[in-house]
Write a structure and sequence with these properties.
Distance between the termini: 40 Å
Largest sheet: 7 strands, mixed
Number of helices: 0
Strand content: over 45%
Structural class: mainly beta
Order of helices and strands: EEEEEEEEEEE
Shape: globular
Number of strands: 11
Length: about 120
């Protein structure tokens, strides 16, 4: 089994920055790619960003481009999502997930964390 624990969420004002972390433990042999997703109240979960095992390949949702940066530290088995210039519409619960391939579809990710809440006020 693989366990993922997100942290770093909280309250922010528009324009602020937050860095989310995702600590991965357990049997990590098949957790090559890491993705971040988010779910706002009353909405479906959506893709935010994903990164390959070595970190050389990343992909972002359009709303994340230029504001969010995904990264990972494989030595520490931790992934990160740096979020800058936050907007009220970024308010959501953010989830990290791992899987074999870097993809935008949540169905491609086998293991998920419980999420960390981000609230951005205007």
């Amino acid at each position: 089994q693989v366990q993922l624990i997100e942290s770093g969420g909280g309250l922010a004002q528009a324009g602020d920055s937050l860095r989310l972390s995702c600590a991965v433990s357990g049997r990590t042999a098949d957790t090559y790619a890491m993705g971040w997703f988010r779910q706002a109240p009353g909405r479906e979960r959506e893709f935010v960003a994903a990164i390959s095992l070595g970190g050389g390949l990343t992909t972002y949702a359009d709303f994340a481009k230029g504001r969010f940066t995904i990264s990972r530290d494989n030595y520490e088995n931790t992934g990160y999502l740096q979020m800058n210039n936050l907007k009220p519409e970024d308010t959501a619960t953010y989830f990290c997930a791992t899987g074999r391939l870097i993809r935008r579809s949540e169905s491609e990710y086998a293991f998920w964390g419980q999420g960390t809440r981000v609230t951005v006020s205007s």
